[in-house]
Amino acid sequence: MLLLDCPCCGQRGEETEFHCGGEAHITREGPSSDDAAFEHYMFERVNPRGVHFERWRHVAGCGKWFHAARDTVTLEVWGTYPAQTSRPPEELLEKIRAARPGFKWRDIA
Question: If we measure between CA atoms, which residue out of 87, 18, 21 comes closest to residue 54?
Answer without folding.
Answer: 21
